[in-house]
Write a structure and sequence with these properties.
Tachylectin-2, Chain A, mainly beta, four-stranded antiparallel sheet, 25 strands, 354 residues, single chain, 49% strand, globular
């Protein structure tokens, strides 16, 4: 598969994003939901911040107090043998696990989808007991004149849930609460009603068997989701044998609904593939990538906070800016550190599925 990466990747780096407050520093910026508003491309990026520390032996962990909604800092000594720091994204203690950073959603704006201006302050931040460890990985679905934004909410008490907000201008947001209970993430809501119902892909996690498969659900109102059906399973020994999850919002093509999804193998290498779903019965899989469309190859994809990762929450199907054709435009997080951009010709993606 011919993937064309932007030659000046990464397009947004941590140093391009101002911290939300002086006590924090931006650690990484990844996994943006994507939308068009007027003549602009909007990225709603996940920005992870860590607490500043003057002592290299002290790790300071930020979180939002669920009662006061005020940022708190908890300190850990890196030399403490009871503290687990093998994964830089987590702090494990005998009593509780903590995220080593707190994430919010930040807007970046562009006319061409390549050169972005980043807002000074977050668009959406942690605000209640469901997300006091942060909000992550937004997907944006436009229905009529309203943009529906679902994102992952993280809390030590409520677990990993999916919440929903809506907006018409990306300035004011209406919160609708949790729409998928724990542990569930990678929700992508289809951008149209199908037979008078809304549909969404989601990825529940089985605590007993540890499965990470894609399911599909339907709803009359975007709030109450039911009729859950297993849609896409992992494939042992393949590029998506460890886990699969939704990527950007499903794209409607003449052949059906095209979903660019992520898969991880047994070594936790994250790659992107495609699945084609029936236009009128989206719970029916018509075709699926045998080989990935895109794998980590560049240095900024191979090395970072969590290495060997390409991961998308935002795609558009339109005329390319790198290729003179109808393309799938992919904004993606690379190595859990930076935002990058690539294009694949739509006809090449569909041809790979036939």
């Amino acid at each position: 598969m011919l993937v064309t990466r932007y030659e000046h990747n990464p397009i947004i780096k941590p140093e391009d994003v101002p911290p939300s407050q002086p006590t924090l520093t931006v650690w990484y910026v990844i996994n943006a939901g994507v939308a068009r508003l007027g003549d602009e491309v909007l990225l709603l990026m996940r920005v992870a911040e860590q607490a500043r520390s003057d002592d290299p032996n002290i790790l300071r962990v930020p979180y939002i107090d669920p009662q006061t909604h005020v940022l708190n800092i908890k300190e850990f000594n890196r030399d403490d043998p009871r503290i687990g720091l093998s994964d830089p994204r987590w702090v494990s203690t005998p009593d509780q696990d903590y995220l080593s950073s707190i994430s919010h959603l930040r807007l970046a704006r562009s006319r061409d989808g390549l050169h972005f201006t980043v807002d000074e302050q977050p668009a959406l931040s942690a605000g209640d007991a469901y997300d006091n460890y942060g909000v992550e990985d937004a997907r944006i679905t436009k229905l009529g004149e309203t943009y529906y934004i679902n994102y992952t909410s993280v809390s030590p008490t409520a677990g990993v849930t999916t919440s929903l907000v809506s907006t018409q201008d990306f300035r004011s947001f209406q919160r609708h609460g949790v729409i998928f209970p724990p542990d569930n993430k990678d929700v992508t809501i289809f951008p149209a009603r199908i037979n008078d119902r809304y549909y969404a892909l989601h990825r529940p996690t089985s605590g007993v068997f540890g499965r990470h498969n894609i399911w599909i659900a339907e709803s009359p109102d975007l709030l109450c989701w039911g009729r859950h059906r297993l849609l896409l399973e992992t494939r042992a020994g393949m590029w998506d044998g460890g886990r699969v999850g939704g990527g950007g919002i499903p794209l409607l093509t003449d052949d059906g609904w095209l979903e660019i999804f992520h898969g991880a193998d047994a070594q936790s290498r994250y790659a992107l593939g495609a699945v084609l779903l029936d236009r009128d019965e989206p719970w029916k899989v018509l075709a699926r990538s045998k080989e990935p469309l895109m794998v980590p190859e560049e240095d900024y994809e191979l090395h970072g906070v969590f290495s060997n990762v390409v991961f998308t929450c935002g795609t558009l199907c339109e005329k390319g800016v790198l290729l003179d054709d109808q393309v799938v435009r992919i904004w993606y997080g690379a190595a859990d550190t930076v935002m990058a951009y690539a294009e694949i010709k739509l006809q090449d993606v569909l041809a790979s599925l036939r």
